[in-house]
Amino acid sequence: MEHWLLSALPESSRRRAIKDWERYKLAVLPLGTLFSAVRLPGRLVLALSGGTTLSGEADQFLSEALDGGPVICDPRGSRYYALVPAGMPRNWHQAAEEWRAQEVDCLGRCAYVGVPRVDVEQPDAAAASYWSVPMAPAAKLCAPLTVARLIAAGWHELKKWSDADVEDGR
To answer: Alpha-carbon distance 71 to 19, whole Å?
Structure first.
C-alpha cells in the first residue's frame, strides 16, 4: 500500500516522502493522478455519526457508511478527506461547485493532501493526521456516489439542527 501511495509522486520525490513519513508520520502527496480527495467538515460527519469528537464513533461510522473506503482525519483542522478516484473532481464538477457553499471541497489536480504513514490509524499527538478508515487493499477507494449520498445526508441533518435552533429562538 505504501508503494502504491508513493507512486503518485515522481521517482525523484519518493525518497523525501519516505523520510517525511519516518520523521513526521505524514507526507504530502499530489492529488489527481492515482486518487483525489473530498474534504468533509468534521461537523458534517459528527451530525451523522452522533459522535462528539473526531475519532472513535465517527471513524466507525465512516467505515460503515463508505464501505471501508479510505478516509484521512485531520483532527487539528476538524476535517476528513475521503479518498476517491482521480477523475471525481472533473466528473462531479457541478456537484462540487454546490458543495463548496457547504464547506465541502472536491480536490484533484494541482492540490495536495497530507497522507499519514500507513500504520497511523489512531489519533496521535505526534501525528497531524491519521487513517480514520485505513486503506485496505491499495487502490480501493471510496465510491463517488456513496460520498455524495453521505454529503447530502449530512447537510440534511445539519439543516434540521439549524431549523430547530431557529424554532427554539436561538
So the answer is: 22
Average pLDDT of the residues in 127-148? 91
- Alpha-carbon span 136 to 127, nearest angstrom: 20
Locate 71 and state its grid cell. 478516509
What per-residue confidence (pLDDT) applies to 99? 76
Are the CB atoms for 40 and 142 separated by under 8 Å? Answer: no
Mean pLDDT computed over 6-31: 95
Residue 167 falls inside a structural domain: no
Going by the DSSP 8-state scheme, the letter that residue 1 receives in this structure is -
- Segments of the chain assigned E as strands: 26-30, 35-41, 71-74, 79-85, 105-107, 112-116, 130-133
Paired sense of beta strands 79-85 and 105-107, if any:
unpaired
Domain limits for position 11:
2-159
Each residue's pLDDT tens digit, 88-110: 767 776 776 777 777 899 999 99
| Residue 113 covered by a domain | yes
